[in-house]
Automatic annotation (TrEMBL):
Belongs to the LAMP family. It holds the Pfam family Lamp2_2nd. InterPro entries: Lamp2-like_luminal, Lamp2-like_TM, LAMP_CS, Lysosome-assoc_membr_glycop. The keyword S-adenosyl-L-methionine does not apply. Keywords: Cell membrane, Disulfide bond, Endosome, Glycoprotein, Lysosome, Membrane, Signal, Transmembrane, Transmembrane helix. It comes from the Eukaryota. Disulfide bonds join C172-C209. One of its GO terms (cellular component) is late endosome membrane. This is Lysosome-associated membrane glycoprotein 1. GO terms for biological process: establishment of protein localization to organelle. Residues 1-29 form the signal peptide.
């Protein structure tokens, strides 16, 4: 019996660190929140999860050359004119009030979203490496002018988000944060985008983001660890039982 207890202790000592490591890995894989300048006023009320919209760009021959489906949320720090303070606001893009346009070239593709009577313009630029056949989101610009707010204008040409392979779409169901500037970041929800290699008006097979893969990996690791624990305990019980029977044999 003491041997069985020692075996159980060793099993727990092996399995518990595996479960703990899996949970810690999930925590570290979460996209870090954007760095935002300190505010002197209470942030505006959270507008909730944005509605998912579908956007497309067509080539000169009228066929789709870029497809995107996602919910978009803008995190903006700005100067409030009436309050004369720096505040933080969260704005959801409404697909039914958003127009899409853009362009497609051999190694670059852009998606421009325009809302609020052309007062807000959000542009995504994707770049394709023709040697490795890999693409990524390389550039984001935002120009916005809302009532009672200072105009916002940012442009970042050195981004590296949404990395995918030519001929495949990029998918990320989990919420992602794209840090564009110190005062602007973008949250994406249920994202799927394909800026290159479209063969029709539908997405090709998807490559999932690391966040989605981690969500699938954690249950597998925990389940395998628990299954291993059950097997080891069962073997220890059978071995202990066999030895106990052997001790009562008649000489």
């Amino acid at each position: 019996m003491k041997q069985i207890i020692r075996v159980h202790s060793r099993c727990l000592g092996v399995v518990l660190p595996l479960i703990l490591a899996a949970i810690l890995h999930q925590g570290f894989a979460t996209v870090a929140p954007p760095t935002i300048a300190p505010t002197t006023a209470v942030p505006h009320k959270d507008p909730g999860r944005p509605e998912r919209g579908t956007y497309s760009v067509t080539s000169q021959n009228g066929t789709a050359c870029l497809l995107a489906s996602m919910g978009l949320q803008l995190n903006i720090t700005f100067k409030s004119v009436p309050q004369n303070k720096t505040v933080q606001d969260v704005v959801n893009l409404q697909p039914n009030l958003t127009k899409s346009s853009g362009s497609c070239e051999s190694d670059t593709a852009s998606l421009q979203l325009t809302t609020d009577a052309d007062k807000t313009i959000l542009t995504f630029v994707f770049t394709l490496n023709t040697t490795s056949h890999k693409y990524h989101l390389s550039e984001v610009s935002l120009s916005a002018s809302w009532p009672d707010k200072e105009p916002v204008s940012v442009h970042n040409r050195s981004l590296n988000y949404m990395r995918g392979t030519l001929g495949y779409s990029y998918m990320c169901h989990k919420e992602q944060t794209l840090n564009v500037a110190q005062n602007v970041s973008i949250n994406t929800f249920q994202l799927q985008v394909q800026p290159f290699g479209l063969t029709g008006d539908k997405f090709a097979a998807a490559e999932e983001c690391q966040l989605d893969e981690d969500d699938m990996l954690i249950p597998i690791i925990v389940g395998a660890a628990l299954a291993g624990l059950v097997i080891i305990v069962l073997l220890a019980y059978l071995i202990g039982r066999k030895r106990s029977h052997a001790g009562y044999q008649t000489i």
